[in-house]
């Protein structure tokens, strides 16, 4: 690495950075049973090129050095696909940018001197574990109830090209399947409804011939589990669609309602 | 101990079939008396959990994420290879086998690779049956695209989110079994040790990451599917939580670790922007189909660009060095990943880098925009001399092909890649090395299996694009379910294994002791401080190009850093609840050992092959120089108490079906 500067000695470079000074107001809660509150943290030397989570990394490093407990928040892939990160930033799930998750949100979306409120995704079905971390296993349980096609692994299923699928249907099924299960739809909904999430899964299978076979049971079982988990009802405000980082459309909810109606009549 | 790869006899094309015909089977009624633990729920672990549960075994699956759906397989973009020959372009099982062995620079085990190629078609059938929405043509049949290192179109895909869709398919199959009670899912749990009883793997010690409780779990077999160890470099395209702890813990309990120095550095990633950088983002390999890679030809221009006094677009054609096209006229910008990465590093090391850190080269679409624009104008009968129009049409076409990637680049870098070239730099992406396994995917500990990226088996010294997804699912859906049955057959009358055995007590105590040590250490630096330092040593001295001096230094420096870590790391909070710093500490402790073995392996391999480049072993033109006479073997390391004192065991690689030749891309 003769002439090439190392990756981490960044202070050796002459960065022309714009330092931002911010006030963070963050929800702190020791555990599920404890009461939470908003705590204020000033933070300095934030650069516009940092991601929002990198800004929190810096805060946490400072807190650790001061002997405080760092702020707990969920995150993993940091490229917008795993669905692990959440955060309700200034009243919006995944913050002010559109079509991105919190991990893809950059500090250039904020101004020097801003105050930023950071809270967990709030819903009865998403209890807080600690600080900004919530338990979204209710989403998993809805999938256990019917988010699958009942085929065993065998190596003897029919050849993949035996049943042609109309490209438009396949593409629409893909658009529904692009849901990352982050829960922004629930957090954005005034009723804490999980309709967009459930509808995306129901739609993916409803649009494909493989999925039609169990369509009736699937929609009834998944909706029943959704209700049992304590999610609210849908009143068509459309907030979920606006805040969804993957652009899952409200048409999915309309499709699920049709599926549910027809399944109820059959059932 | 001599390594027995347990490769079945007979011609390569018949091995797997013959093997399946002669293994021990467990009858369905007895399967319900057998428990299997699976650690990790990505493509390999998720597919194995679902399949074993369908067969009737009781599966306990563990993941550190809040849901099995979030494992890092989800981030794979490009696609999955399968020898379907749907395009009628001459593909076959043999060709996929051959391409994979050659792409791996002749350092993979032939029999495993052939089996992988054989089951590749079944994977596509299975995924479509599960409702995975793979891309289709207008006629309704499945679409394919081409990837690097092959002459056929065999890559199936779901836009740029193939990994996501395949993982959600495996997750759905798991969900069905969780609903039936056949898979017991442990989310937010981390395996912290393996329990070995009478020489066999019989359970694990795991930490419940929410409550902090240390738990004992027993089973008749343990499957490690915890992915690769790329995060030993701190910065990589891996997820933040991706770690080597499960794989490293089994290594310390007796599983040999193979070829740790084989690491893939992907050429097209978004460069580091500063010290705050927490991870790196990959831009799909497909961009090299149309993008041209260059740096300024003159040092003073590179300097001026770094200082912001000049822009890329200020430089004329003559002032640019399209170094891949210059060095490799035949393959140009489409040379394999290892070759492209090294060439970019060479230019940056010589001072031609173009971003503020000096570690970036341009990936330029201006020529492609003009070419496509001209074509579009011609097809539409418009004026091809109207430059504004041509640029507009070309931009639209490039947008339709790569729009989502350009958008991602724009969001991260805040620069418009349609009007100024992208900046890219290589980053750690995948690890070909991993736990040594035999043909049964069993490690050197009986009853402990390793599948997917966590094992070493199929990619040799370099993995081809779109082959990781194939291997993960092949292992989980179609290979392990057979081989594990053969192992478990004698255990059917054994009954549940007690977690009160002294081996469980001892393993749990060791885990608790380590955690107590961290909690009471009261040092002065955070875990990340040490992880970054380790990453810097690894990148500088064990990265894209390595030499004897640097590797020797790295071994000493890593050992010293590890000592400092144990003395001076600070883990805040309590271990009796959710504590992300403690999670990081246990992971980094293992990376600090793995890194040392990694360097030792790189030091011992006196040749260059695939992702392993030793500066002393290169041709006059600066290409990798293999030494088949002395190094055509798998290096499997046995832990003896200190990584640098690991004992080497060699598994000779025999090539009966492929002729070894020097790779050339000129």
**Major sheet summary line of chain A:** 5 strands, mixed
CATH superfamily of the domain at 266-428 in chain B: Succinate dehydrogenase/fumarate reductase flavoprotein, catalytic domain
Mean pLDDT across all residues of chain B, rounded?
95
Number of strands of chain B: 19
CATH topology heading of the largest domain in chain A: Fumarate Reductase Iron-sulfur Protein, Chain B, domain 2
Distance separating the two termini of chain A: 69 Å
Overall structural class of chain A, as computed from helix and strand content, comes to alpha+beta
Please give the largest β-sheet of chain B.
5 strands, parallel
**What would you report as the Rg of chain B, rounded to the nearest angstrom?**
25 Å
Short summary of the structure?
The complex is a heterodimer of chains A (267) and B (666). Chain A is α+β, with helices and mostly antiparallel strands and 267 residues long.
């Amino acid at each position: 690495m003769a002439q090439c500067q190392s990756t981490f000695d960044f202070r050796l470079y002459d960065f022309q950075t714009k330092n931002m000074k911010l006030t963070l107001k963050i929800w702190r809660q020791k555990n599920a049973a404890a009461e939470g509150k908003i705590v204020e943290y000033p933070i300095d030397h934030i650069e516009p090129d940092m991601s929002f989570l990198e800004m929190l990394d810096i805060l946490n490093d400072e807190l650790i050095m001061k002997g405080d407990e760092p702020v707990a928040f969920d995150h993993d892939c940091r490229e917008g696909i795993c669905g692990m990160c959440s955060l309700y930033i200034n009243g919006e799930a995944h913050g002010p940018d559109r079509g991105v998750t919190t991990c893809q949100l950059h500090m250039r979306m904020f101004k020097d001197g801003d105050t930023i409120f950071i809270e967990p995704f709030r819903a009865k079905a998403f209890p807080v574990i600690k600080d900004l971390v919530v338990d979204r296993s209710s989403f998993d349980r809805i999938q256990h109830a019917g988010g699958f096609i009942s085929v065993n692994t065998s190596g003897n299923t029919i050849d993949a090209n035996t049943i042609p699928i109309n490209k438009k249907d396949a593409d629409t099924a893909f658009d529904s399947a692009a849901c990352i299960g982050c829960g922004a739809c629930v957090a954005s909904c005034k009723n804490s409804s999980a309709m967009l999430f459930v509808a995306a899964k129901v739609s993916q299978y409803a649009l494909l011939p493989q999925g039609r076979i169990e369509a009736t049971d699937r929609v009834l079982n998944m909706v029943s589990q959704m209700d049992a988990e304590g999610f609210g009802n849908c009143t068509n405000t459309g907030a979920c669609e606006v805040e969804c980082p993957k652009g899952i459309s409200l048409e999915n909810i309309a499709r699920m309602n049709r599926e549910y109606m027809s399944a109820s009549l059959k059932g | 101990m001599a390594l027995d790869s347990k490769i079945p006899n007979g011609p390569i094309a018949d091995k797997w079939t013959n093997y399946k015909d002669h293994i021990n089977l467990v009858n369905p009624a007895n399967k319900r008396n057998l428990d299997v633990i699976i650690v990790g729920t990505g493509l390999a672990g998720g597919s194995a959990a679902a399949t074993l549960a369908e067969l009737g075994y009781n599966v306990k699956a563990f993941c550190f994420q809040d849901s099995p759906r979030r494992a890092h397989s989800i981030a794979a973009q490009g696609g999955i290879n399968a020898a379907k020959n749907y395009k009628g372009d001459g593909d076959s099982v043999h060709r996929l086998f051959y391409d994979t062995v050659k792409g791996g620079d002749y350092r993979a085990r032939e029999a495993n690779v052939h089996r992988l190629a054989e089951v590749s078609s079944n994977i596509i059938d299975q995924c479509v049956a599960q409702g995975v929405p793979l891309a289709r043509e207008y006629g309704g049949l499945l679409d394919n695209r081409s990837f690097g290192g092959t002459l056929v179109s065999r890559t199936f895909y779901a836009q740029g989110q193939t990994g996501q869709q395949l993982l959600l398919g495996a997750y759905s199959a798991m969900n069905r079994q969780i609903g039936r009670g056949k898979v017991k899912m442990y989310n937010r749990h981390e395996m912290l040790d393996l329990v070995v009883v009478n020489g066999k793997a019989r359970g694990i010690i795991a930490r419940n990451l929410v409550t902090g409780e240390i738990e004992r779990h027993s089973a008749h077999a343990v499957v490690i599917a915890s992915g690769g160890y790329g995060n030993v470099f701190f910065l990589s395209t891996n997820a933040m939580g991706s770690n080597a702890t499960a794989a490293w813990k089994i290594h310390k309990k007796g599983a040999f670790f193979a070829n740790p120095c084989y690491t893939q550095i992907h050429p097209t990633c978004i460069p580091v922007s500063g010290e705050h950088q927490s991870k790196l983002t990959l831009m799909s390999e497909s961009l090299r189909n149309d993008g041209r890679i260059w740096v300024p030809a003159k040092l003073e221009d590179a300097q001026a660009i770094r200082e912001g006094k000049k822009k890329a677009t200020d430089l004329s054609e003559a002032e640019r060095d399209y170094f891949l096209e210059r060095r490799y006229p035949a393959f140009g910008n489409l040379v394999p990943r290892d070759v492209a990465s090294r060439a970019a590093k060479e230019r940056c090391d010589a001072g031609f880098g173009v971003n503020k850190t000096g570690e970036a080269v341009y990936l330029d679409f201006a020529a492609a925009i003009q070419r496509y624009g001209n074509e579009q104008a011609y097809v539409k009968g418009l004026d091809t001399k109207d430059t504004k129009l041509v640029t507009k049409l070309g931009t639209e076409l490039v947008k339709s092909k790569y729009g989502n990637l350009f958008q991602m680049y724009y969001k991260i870098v805040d620069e418009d890649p349609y009007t100024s070239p992208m900046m890219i730099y290589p980053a750690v992406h995948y690890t070909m090395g991993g736990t040594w396994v035999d043909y049964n995917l069993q490690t050197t500990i009986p009853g402990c299996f390793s599948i997917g990226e966590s094992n070493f088996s199929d990619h040799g010294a370099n993995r081809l694009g779109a082959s990781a997804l194939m291997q993960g699912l092949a292992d989980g859906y179609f290979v392990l379910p057979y081989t594990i049955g053969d192992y478990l057959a004698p255990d059917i009358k054994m009954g549940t294994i007690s977690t009160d055995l002294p081996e469980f007590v001892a393993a749990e105590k060791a885990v608790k002791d380590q955690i107590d040590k961290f909690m009471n250490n009261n040092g002065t630096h955070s875990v990340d401080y040490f992880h970054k330092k380790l990453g810097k040593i690894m990148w500088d001295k064990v990265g894209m190009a390595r030499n004897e001096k640097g590797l020797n230094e790295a071994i000493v420096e890593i050992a010293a850093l590890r000592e400092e870590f144990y003395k001076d790391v600070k883990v805040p909070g309590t271990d009796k609840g959710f504590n992300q710093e403690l999670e990081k500490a246990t992971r980094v402790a293992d990376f600090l050992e793995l890194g040392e073995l990694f360097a030792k392996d790189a030091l011992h391999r006196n040749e260059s092959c695939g992702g392993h480049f030793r500066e002393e072993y290169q041709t006059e033109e600066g290409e990798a120089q293999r030494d088949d006479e002395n190094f055509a073997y798998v290096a499997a390391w046995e832990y003896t108490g200190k990584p640098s004192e690991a004992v080497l065991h060699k598994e000779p690689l025999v090539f009966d079906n492929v002729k070894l030749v020097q790779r050339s891309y000129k």
